[in-house]
């Protein structure tokens, strides 16, 4: 298959982790005889530095004419610590999601046997946990009208959802649940928010078309607690933009590190693949960032184009590296490997023509094909 992939490495650890994904994708292309063409473009703080624009026109154009976008991370402390900055790296990512129509962000959470003891959560609570968060990505409070009063004494962010925005998201989540354990949990705040009540009403109605899926509801405050008390109760979680952002970082504790959590952003004609974590500025250039979230995002990219066998090869290689402790310091404190060494190891495993990856006892969850 021929694919044109726009590479938006971004800020902080973005470039070093994305580099490892490109290595891995090139190894897949060689092994399976695909043609992947990569083209870089700037985004985030790096783009503000050069052009005073976090999403330059040329970057957006490249993304639009590519089959997929591989996104690293954006963000820089000089903006995080300056609430007065009008131009911000995050605006680049948000605009990109909106312009590409990427209304659904899919964040799978799984556990690896080797890492069960590393989680601060009790092993028996997390062993076998396997859930996927369907986070709405182009609506809600992120994209509502924003304002600050002239005297600077008050500020407003408006949260809006339409039935149409909820419906298209719900259909994707129900379909995913049908391919998994047939359970869907809507996470909302319907006891307080009007938008959440619209979510509940709309999702209940759509559930009639998916009789084989068990639907339940949780208020987000309770969901946050349940996520660490008993994550095994979840299969597919459907939720709005901001709640999904928050509970997915929380869910990363189950697997042992946020450096393992990948995501796919889909919806329109384009698709983007990005780790759920940020630019982790403290680690920039130190070679300590875990590249696996980015690499598993590349596996989701392959799934998206129907290359599921290829995606599985990456997931198996990652599982093997974790089993063998070829991991960065977030999950291997005693004998850590660098970001690049982990990438090299995975590239090597994938390149072996007679791949002898032993998939016994490996759990990479029930993948959601999108
Ligand atoms: N999608 C994105 O580009 C994205 C996502 C989240 C945050 N951000 C931005 O990133 C910047 C930093 O934000 P933050 O510190 O709140 O979140 P962060 O995700 O960058 O880092 C939080 C913590 O997670 C851990 N971590 C993150 N990535 C890791 C990796 N690959 N390997 C190992 N550990 C990892 C580290 O312990 C780190 O201190 C901010 O500017 C923020 O706006 C961007
Ligand atoms: C950087 C920020 C805009 C972004 C979000 O909130 O969506 C990030 O936290 C994420 O999870 O991708
Ligand atoms: Mg986030």
From TrEMBL:
Gene3D superfamilies named among the record's database cross-references: Isopropylmalate Dehydrogenase
One BP annotation, GO: L-leucine biosynthetic process
Residues binding substrate, per UniProt: 97, 107, 135, 221
Q: Which GO terms describe its molecular function?
A: 3-isopropylmalate dehydrogenase activity; magnesium ion binding; NAD binding
Annotated pathway: Amino-acid biosynthesis; L-leucine biosynthesis; L-leucine from 3-methyl-2-oxobutanoate: step 3/4
Give a Pfam family name. Answer: Iso_dh
Q: Which GO terms describe its cellular component?
A: cytosol
In the UniProt record, the signal sequence range is: none
The cross-references to InterPro entries, in alphabetical order and at most eight, read: IsoCit/isopropylmalate_DH_CS (IPR019818), IsoPropMal-DH-like_dom (IPR024084), Isopropylmalate_DH (IPR004429)
Q: Cite the binding residues for Mg(2+).
A: 221, 245, 249
Give the subcellular location.
Answer: Cytoplasm
Cite the cofactor comment. Answer: Binds 1 Mg(2+) or Mn(2+) ion per subunit.
Entry's EC annotation: 1.1.1.85
What chemistry does it catalyse, as a reaction equation?
Answer: (2R,3S)-3-isopropylmalate + NAD(+) = 4-methyl-2-oxopentanoate + CO2 + NADH
Q: Ranges for the Isopropylmalate dehydrogenase-like domain?
A: 4-346
Q: Which cofactor does it need?
A: Mn(2+); Mg(2+)
Q: What this chain does, per the record?
A: Catalyzes the oxidation of 3-carboxy-2-hydroxy-4-methylpentanoate (3-isopropylmalate) to 3-carboxy-4-methyl-2-oxopentanoate. The product decarboxylates to 4-methyl-2 oxopentanoate.
The entry describes its oligomerization and partners as: Homodimer.
Q: Which NCBIfam families match?
A: leuB
Q: Which PANTHER family match?
A: 3-ISOPROPYLMALATE DEHYDROGENASE (PTHR42979)
Record's family?
Belongs to the isocitrate and isopropylmalate dehydrogenases family. LeuB type 1 subfamily.
Q: Any idea what this protein is called?
A: 3-isopropylmalate dehydrogenase
Q: To which species is this protein native?
A: Zunongwangia mangrovi
The encoding gene? leuB
